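Revision sheet: structure tokens.
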Amino acid sequence: MKKIGRNDLCPCGSGKKFKKCHMGREDELSWDGMGDISIEMSAMITSLPEVSYGRSQEMKDALDIKELTGSSTGIKFVDLKEYTDLSLFGSSHPQASRGSSGGVFINLYKTTKSDPDNIYLAISRDIDDSTLIHELSHILDYLGGSKLMPGTLKPLSFESEIPVDHLEHPEEFGYWLDYLKKQFSVQPDADDAIISYLYENGMLIKGKEIQEKNTLILKSKSDRILRFLSEKSQEIDALIRNLPGYIGSREVKE
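Predicted:
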């Protein structure tokens, strides 16, 4: 990969120096220069042994990706710790270092060179059902929805001054999350329950609007989401109070 100097402009287009922007967070960049990734470096990831943790294989086998999305792309699961231990392209993730349940949709720029036919999902041994359907929703959304890749939208979030969660979880993601939680009878965690609630109420931003990158429209849509969350804070708190990931009351006090 072409080395980026600490004082070079960040490739994300923010106008900041690399050291003050994505240095140490290279995994969040969406790279256009596929030639910068050698096939040998890519193969270090795609040659990792496939794993089957939790219900990952069951869910994978039950999903007809071609029928659902129109894409013949496959899904491969690899071990999250083994992936992060490669220390390639900013592959460090907090889930692995904490040893907790987690999953990572591996940026395609890292894997396409050596395996263009599959999307790779790195998962921990103790991955739970909620995390699995969240990451699988990202994959289905990428293949047959918004076409947005998680982990690549922080530059747009910075430019538009809206929460990155509003960009990474568009309306199409909400559709797939709703589909998967019903398909596999999974109770989402608190954060995903909020996303589902926003989807059911028609509040999520459409992928096309995010792709167009009109910051005025995106800011307006994001502000609408925030107002809705504030107005419905009591109802939402009651909805998520007993779910995993609940961090305390989110009610807006008078």
